[in-house]
Amino acid sequence: MSARAITGYGAYLPRHRLAHAEIADALGAGGGRGTRTVASFDEDSTTMAVEAARAATGDGRPDAIHLATTAPAYLDKTNAAAVHAALDLGHAGFAADVVGSARSAVAALRSGLADGGLVVLSDLRNGRPGSTDERDGGDGAVALRFGDPDDAIAVVLARASATAEFLDRWRAPGDDHSGQWEERFGAERYAPLVESVVAEALAAAGIEQADHVVISSPHGRAAAAARKRYRGRIEGADPAIGYVGAADLGLRLAAVLDRAGADETILVVSAADGADAFVLRTTERLAATRPERGVVAQLEHGRALRYAAFLTWRGRLEREPPRRPEPDRPAGPPSARSEAWKFAFVGSRCTACGFVHVPPMRVCKSCRAVDEMESLSLADRRGTVATFTVDRLAFSPAPPLITVVVDFDGGGRYTVEMADAAPDEVAIGTRVEMTFRRLYTVDGVHNYFWKARPLAEATGTTEG
Fold first, then answer.
1. Residue 342, CA distances (Å) to 337, 360, 436, 453 in order
2. 320 Cβ partners below 8 Å, 6+ apart?
3. What gap in Å lies between CA 67 and CA 122, rounded to an integer?
């Protein structure tokens, strides 16, 4: 089988932003300028992977999904299976995780190049309060489609890799923050590795310098040195994403694809437990295949978040729990029976009268026809808020809890929670879209389902 090419892509950045100055004010220390992206309390690496995969442009249904992350929602269970289910792919095809280190992203990309399918890179970054990891990290996801070179938006001209064993960063199983060695040591180890793979990849591609350069590394000093040395001919502002772990390489590549022209070269370099370099060339199909929401556009439209809320969401600040019974642990059998509804938000439409049922039904509520239904996915349908409630007593890590009744475009009505919104941003007539989220977690079991969120990108509201 010939090597595959990139045929589409999509990125997802959560809407919350934590300002470095907010951290500095809370801890009484210098924090600098800028912000970091923050996954909401109901988001994890799986939910963000679903959002990126939904945004990925391209034709056809992927026959394989490779999910790379350093922060899997589950261990001893395949997280990519939930992504597969949320995309309504039935039971055909292959889905697997590539987890552990940031270099897992490169392993997933190599699998996509070899076998095609959808490569999803998704991560959340944690660190001790006040640490560089906490301040300079970020959360997000990206999905890259791999397929026939005839449909390519970018082809891989060459690649090179080098591996070295040295103790730069480490995290023991169960820990939520990494240990780090002194930065100068890591910079000295990474520099020759990066130099060797870049020289090899550029020579194999037959070019001396690329038009665009993407550098990704968990080692900040090594990344800065490489960016200074390997500048592209076409300069563009490097988006202030922060370091997003296994998703970092793909998000930076997506930001370049958002603005690159046809027949331009991109040097992609990862320095993590070694070094990897890819040289890509874009095609004329790129401009027509860009997703609706680019990386920079998503970065520019966020919601400010208080540091106390961030610490609460990450489990570092224990606050008073609700004086109400805990929800039951999600059970396996009913989840399996309603897989298409629960994970892909699939309803049904009566073939006799056209009435849309949410959730799916066997008997039509309108004409009473029995078993005359066809499946209808509503995950990508937008809708309008028909009515809503604001519950200030129900437990929520970001109170109050907002529940909305949504009338979907083309038919169907359902009641769901509202995500990423404050009460003054919701009204009858508010336009919404659906987003895959986590309702709650009990005994280590995540209850995934769908919520609504406002279509408007910018709100200017501060949470927490």
1. 9, 11, 10, 18
2. none
3. 7
Residue 63 above 50 pLDDT? yes
Question: Containing domain of residue 404, as a range?
Answer: 332-457
Among 313, 347, 362, where does a domain finish?
A: 313
3-state percent breakdown (helix, strand, coil) of the chain, nearest 5: 25, 30, 45
Task: Report residue 37's pLDDT band, with 50, 70 and 90 as the boundaries.
Answer: very high
363: helix, strand or coil: strand
The owner of tokens 């990309």 is 109
Contact assessment for residue 255 and residue 299, using Cβ atoms and an 8 Å cutoff: no
CB neighbours of residue 25 within 10 Å? 12
For residue 298, what are its two tokens?
Answer: 């998503």
Kindly state whether residues 275 and 337 are assigned to the same domain. Answer: no
Domain total for the chain? 2
Residue 46, classed as helix, strand or coil, is: helix
State the Cα torsion 123-127-130-131 to the nearest 10°: -100
- Where among 279, 313, 347 does a domain terminate? 313
Across 368-389, average pLDDT: 96
Q: Within the chain, how many helices (H) and strands (E) appear?
A: 12, 23
> What span, in angstroms and rounded, lies between the C-alpha atoms of 319 and 317?
6
